[in-house]
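fyi for ur records
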Amino acid sequence: MDLTGAQVLAHRAAAQGLHGDDPDAVLPLGVVDSPPKTGAAALGVRGRRDGVEDLVRVLSLRGAPHLHRRDDLPALRRQLRPRTPRHLAAWCGAHPVPDLEHVDLVVDLLHREFPGETATKGELSAAISPLLPPVVTPHCPTCRTGHVIENVFRLATLLAGIELAHLGPKLVFRRPTAKPDVEEPGEPTLLRDYARLVGPFAKADAEKWLGAGPPGTWPELRPVRVDGKRLLAADDLAAEDVAEAPDPPAGLLLFPRDPYLLGPRHLVADPDVAKRVWRPVGGPGALVLHGRVTGAWRHEFRGRTVTFQVTGWSKVKGAARRAIKDQADVLAGVWGGNALGADVVEW
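which gave:
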């Protein structure tokens, strides 16, 4: 199957509910929520107007805060649980890799030693670290002490069924009410959803999203060519479905980790634009015009107004300009209800 990048992005926008007809379409992937409310923003631009209180906030993919549906958490735990030393190594960074059973030990201690009804990350780590063997608590030069490996701790909170408070500058964990059962790997539904919602990708794209390779097998995939480059797609992807997708929205204000921006980066942005938007720390938002990232944006709060500073705003015309103004109003509503208004200016 031969496709164009424009066709892939149109299909992706439709599959991910960016036309406002299915605001929860991306929830099978989870939505990054760091800083807090960025997850609500990602769902808000897709048409969700009733808040995110029905969703749970947990440390999931790559140990980052995400919003998920509670019913999706058992499958998420099954598929992120390391089942080989190689997969556990992806959570350990530069640290020596402990035994797989040490993950279950950390999970058990999180339940037994949880201090109070809520706990910060530091309080929870301090409660369990003295009870763990040295291989799980290497010396940390920054903290000047030994504590549980950061991302092993983050993964274990998910496996233990521990949720996060939705708001606040720090990670605050809630006492778990029940310990989840240890489950078999099951079907690779996460990767199937990735293929379905992102469209053609390279395996390295999916592994970067997961933070590691799949614990089990890859789902059934088929080779396709997009603008002449070989990629993989869901086995049931039909050329007519891609061809019939409507054009992407004229203008979008997305955060850098929005699900629309997953997959091969060259499909959504030229290299010079990508360098400005995807930064290791403190990256701006992505200005998306007619499906492609063309610039960046930032925002700041000034009294009752949230000001959006948009790259090249004076050059954005017609339907794209109207769409960006609508997006700014939506985000102001997500962040402040009726208390905030939006102002879009040149960056």
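Residues 318-336 form the longest helix (19 residues). thats all i got for now
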